[in-house]
Amino acid sequence: MWKDEEVEVGDLEMIEHQNDTDNSFDDFDDQGYQMGSSGYRSTSSRGHFLSGFKCVCLQLGAVFALGIGACAMAYVFVPDFGVVPNWMAGSTTNNHHQGNNDDGDFTGDGFTGTVDPSSIIDHSSAYTVILQVPVATVEADVIVYEHVTTRTPIMTILPYDTQQDSVFGISFRTKPTNSHGAPHVLEHSVLAGSKKYPLKDPFTQVLKGSLNTFVNAMTWKDLTAYVCASRNDVDMKNLMSVYMDAVFQPLVVEDQGKWIFRQEGWRIELNDNDTNNSSSSSKNNKNNEKKGEPEFNGVVLSEMKGVMSNPEEVLVEHMEAHLFPNTTYRFNSGGNPLDIPNLTHEELKQFYKTFYHPSNAQVFFYGTKTSAKNCLQQMDEYLRTYSYNKDVRNQSKIELQPLLQLPNSKHRIPFEAETEDEPHKLMMSWMISKDGSMDDHFQRENRMTYAVLNELLNNERYGALFLALQNSGLVGSIEGDIDISQLQWTFDVLVSNVAGDQADTVEQFIRDTLQNIAKNGFHQEDVESAINTVEFDYKDISSQNNPRGIMIWMNIMQTYKFDLEPLTGFLSFEKDLHELKAFVKKHGSQIFQGIIQNNIIDNSHAVVAELYPDPTLAEKNTAVSFC
Q1: Total Cβ atoms within 10 A of residue 540
Q2: Which residue has the higher pLDDT, 559 or 499?
Q3: Between vectors from CA 183 to CA 262 and to CA 191, what angle results, nearest 5°?
Q4: Could you write out the DSSP letters of every residue in 345-374?
Q5: Are 549 and 157 in contact, with CB atoms under 8 Å apart?
Q6: pLDDT value of residue 330
Q7: What does the pLDDT look like over 238-251, one tens digit per residue?
Q8: Mean of pLDDT values over 266-292
Q9: Which residues does residue 319 pair with via DSSP β-bridges, in sequence order?
Q10: Which of 264, 303, 313, 445 is catalytic?
Q11: Bridge-based pairing state of the strands 223-230 and 606-614
Q12: How far is Cα 307 from Cα 415, in angstroms, rounded to an integer?
């Protein structure tokens, strides 16, 4: 079927194949911006896995379908590691097991690894083994290598099913200090040509002959990632080469790369109206005789203008800015269309210099032993040219938002409408935290607890808050979610079709409903259903449309990007869920009632916003528009 042979990567020659491969992005959004129903902050009524990952993508569509929607006591504790986390200190191999025996012991001897990590390293002096553990959750050996020169961690997962697609991902924690869109523009720009591949669009050439099953780049609020997948080892080697050269040797950061910045970011050009319609009216032809009016253009600018034309996106950004007024999360990492023209080429180059360094990178690989060897060897070729910089990772560290007293934080935000009679929307958000220090084990426990709580509140079949709102007759659509995608977690409720004079009534109804739930608890059968739903969704990643390794990477990055121990979160979910089941069996729904009371009802770090129709807003926006 496929001719599996080495090709000259530098010329972007691909593997010959007899079958035509569909490399289209039919499942992806044309604008490349997938944020859930309301953008940066997911408010899906069905707490889908990673739905809260606030992400701007090149071509990413609805790839997040696992039902986590979990959230913990928002002040996630990130120890002051410097750059190297505690779990990496000492560079010793950890051979503990993550298996599951009949007694519910997930750390026993019921699961053994099969791979010698040293057998994957061609040049053993380039890497040390930090962690080695077989994990039943993913049915694979998990090995974390550390590059000796740069201390870059490379998490390598070798599944026992060798027919799985191989996945490569490299991510950088990126922390914007404004809404100019530097992370998003840079994500686009580095893929527009590099030193080894000085083409206008190297990925177009790659896709012409590639056997890839996933090619993408993504910008989150606090992370930028480049990911690809293929089932062919040679193709995977080629894809990794293009990605590595793109992030470590992009042309856009060179002086001659300013055209890339203008193409992908923003530029001013004349609007030539007569190029589209040769049979236009004489009046239009007269206008077309003019040189044209100047206008702003650019790939990211155009994309974000489309995104922010959605009133719910504006609402979500407003809530984010007020929930996290002292952290990087108050900024729009995708770029606010009004702010993007303030981004300069020099600022973009400085952003790259600050964050695109191996000491701030995390590499992920999932797949065959052959491709794992290629990954480590190819990474070393780039990493060896750098030296360790202890300040880089600290510069990207996400700061904690202090707990604030916001008892009267209510806002009214207009949206363009034809009449004042159109229905309103109401959004309530809490930063659910009571203190600012939690260790990794506490994080694991609460991740599962909040995953189950999310189902108990928001599930469309038995969610107590969802059903109460649905039966109230006060609202139309209901979207609730506990968002775990950021350093500090939030609980969000967004309701639509609210009558103009009923916003305060709906707000009070939500508060009263939560108070009633906290007092009376949940039915035991609903708790069991929620636990079963979470367990099934966590285990069901193989049924998604994307390669299994992509879904595993998405799961792991929720905690790994904050330098938490790799087994925190997804890789330990079976053990953590087992402990939660035992607690619930003994104490019922008390743990969930306590969270609702202490971290939502009694928590004044919350914002309420009403989205109302304004027939005059379109005219106002036209007056201040820069286009």
Answers
A1: 14
A2: 499
A3: 60
A4: HHHHHHHHHHH-SGGGEEEEEES-HHHHHH
A5: yes
A6: 96
A7: 999 999 999 999 99
A8: 58
A9: none
A10: 264
A11: unpaired
A12: 14
Residue 403 DSSP code: P
DSSP symbol at 597: I
**SS3 category, 461:** coil
DSSP 57-122: ESS--S-----------S-------TTS-GGGTT-------B---TTS-TTSSS------GGGT-S
Sign of CA dihedral 553, 33, 45, 609: positive
Kindly report the length of the chain.
627
Phi first, then psi, for residue 220 (nearest 5°) are -100, 180
With respect to residue 598, please indicate whether it lies within any of the assigned structural domains.
yes
- What are the backbone dihedrals phi and psi of residue 28, each rounded to the nearest 5 degrees, phi first? -105, 150
Q: What angle do CA 319, 325, 328 make, to 5 degrees?
A: 95
The token pair at 547 is 């390669």
- Are 134 and 142 contacting, i.e. CB atoms less than 8 angstroms apart? yes
- In angstroms, how far apart are the furthest CA atoms of the chain? 84
In angstroms, rounded to a whole number, what is the distance separating the alpha carbons of residues 174 and 465? 35
Please count the structural domains in the chain: 1
pLDDT, tens only, 293-324: 888 999 999 999 999 999 999 999 999 999 99
Q: Which residues contact 72 (CB under 8 A, 6 or more apart)?
A: 438, 442, 443, 446, 447, 449, 450, 484, 489
264 given a catalytic annotation? yes
275: in domain = no
Residue among 194, 225, 171 nearest 12 (CA): 194
Residue of 187, 303, 312, 317 with catalytic role? 187
Q: What is d(CA 386, CA 11) in angstroms, rounded to the nearest whole number?
A: 26
CA distances to 28, 246, 448 from 24, in Å: 9, 21, 36
DSSP per-residue codes, 368-401 = -HHHHHHHHHHHHHHHTTS---HHHHHHTPPPPP
Q: Which domain holds residue 562?
A: 410-624
Closest CA to 235 of 213, 210, 216, 206: 210
pLDDT tens-place string over residues 329-379: 999 999 999 999 999 999 999 999 999 999 999 999 999 999 999 999 999
Specify the pairing of strand 212-220 against strand 490-498: unpaired
Backbone angle region of 47, left / alpha / beta, with phi > 0 → left and psi within -120 to 50 → alpha:
left
393 assigned to some structural domain: no
Please identify which residue in the block is written with the tokens 């036209």: 622
Residue 501: CATH number of its domain = 3.30.830.10
Inside any domain, residue 597: yes
Measured CA to CA, the distance from residue 218 to residue 232 in angstroms comes to: 23
Q: How far apart are CA 627 and CA 621, in angstroms?
A: 11
Question: Do residues 253 and 278 lie in contact, with contact meaning Cβ atoms separated by under 8 Å?
Answer: no
Task: Tell me how many degrees the CA angle 234-237-242 measures, rounded to the nearest 5.
Answer: 130
